[in-house]
Amino acid sequence: MKILLAEDNLVNQKVAMGLLDRWGYEADLAPNGLEALNLWRSHDYDLILMDLQMPKMSGFECARAIRLEELAKGSHIPIVALTAHAMRGDRERCLNAGMDAYVPKPINPEELKQILEEFHVHKSPRLVKQTKFAYSLAEIASHLGGDLDLAKDVIRVFLKEYPKELSKFQQSYEKKDFEQIKQLAFRLKGGLVYFGAEEIQASAALVETKAKEANLEELKAALKELQSHLEELGAYLRSLQ
Ligand code: MN
After folding, report:
1. What mean pLDDT comes out for the span 50-71?
2. How far apart are the C-alpha atoms of 83 and 177, rounded to whole Å?
3. For the chain, is the Cβ count within 10 Å smaller at the N or the C terminus?
4. Cα–Cα distance list, 47 to 90, 124, 227, 240 (Å)
5. What is the SS3 string spanning 98-141?
6. What is the whole-number distance in angstroms between the Cα of residue 151 and the centre of ligand 1?
7. For residue 182, is pLDDT > 90?
8. How far is the CA of 29 from the centre of ligand 1 (A)?
9. How much distance in Å is there from the Cα of 60 to the middle of ligand 1?
């Protein structure tokens, strides 16, 4: 596992790099957020340890910039915040900036080791779950102005609506109403944007295409795929509530 440490404080740098080295992790050091962003762009890291207060670019800004660029790439690197003041608001601020977990400073070696092992073994964040299908809750919120409550509302609405949408697809298919299916698929695609569910958007786009072509057999297969993808997304989103 290759780690990027973004930290401006010399003592903290020494402590964290020393621990990582002792535990056998390969690590690079960035003394500010801007350098961290550039290193992340040009290297293939498995995890970032991110101090929050840094010169040039803060940990919050750096995490946001990374999450934004990841949208285009469809990737997600775990970011663990290193926070000096374990204040209540810090957790929300970290989540809103797209970070996955945080450890308070001064670093407790056992706690840091445990977090790294969790990410290493499970490849999944500590605070938020992820799937290949969708963003973490923090990321969904970060695309809604950083509002976690709004993110949960959007998820609730989606969970309530998608089974109804699925039965509309089924009804329209039985009636061979291709125009209606096209419209349903188009509308569904728009709603999926909030969850970063590109794969499912692609399934919906395929349904749209097959409806346009009025290809009953292939449309049936595309609808089946869309349904199973939506059910998987639904199960994941329910786990975020
Ligand atoms: Mn700092």
Report:
1. 91
2. 56
3. C
4. 20, 11, 33, 22
5. CCCEEEECCCCHHHHHHHHHHHHHHCCCCCCCCECCECCHHHHH
6. 30
7. yes
8. 13
9. 12
Distance, CA 83 to ligand 1 centroid (Å)? 9
Long-range contacts of 10-15 (CB under 8 A, 24+ apart): 12/51, 12/82, 12/105, 12/107, 15/106, 15/107
Q: What is the distance in A from the centroid of ligand 1 to the CA of 41?
A: 21
- Residue ranges near ligand 1 (ion) with Cβ within 5 Å: 8, 51, 53-54
For residue 151, the number of C-alpha atoms closer than 13 Å in the C-beta half-sphere is 24
Domains of the chain and CATH, by start: 2-123 (3.40.50.2300), 137-240 (1.20.120.160)
Confidence of residue 125 (pLDDT cuts 50, 70, 90): very low
- pLDDT above 90 covers a percentage of the chain that reads 47
Distance 59 CA to ligand 1 centre (A): 9
To the question of pTM greater than 0.70 for the whole model, the response is no
Predicted confidence at residue 85, as pLDDT, reads 63
81 contacts 58 by C-beta, under 8 angstroms: no
pLDDT at 134 over 80: no
Cα of 52 from ligand 1 centre, angstroms: 6
> Is the pLDDT reported for residue 171 higher than 90?
yes
184 C-alpha to center of ligand 1: Å? 49
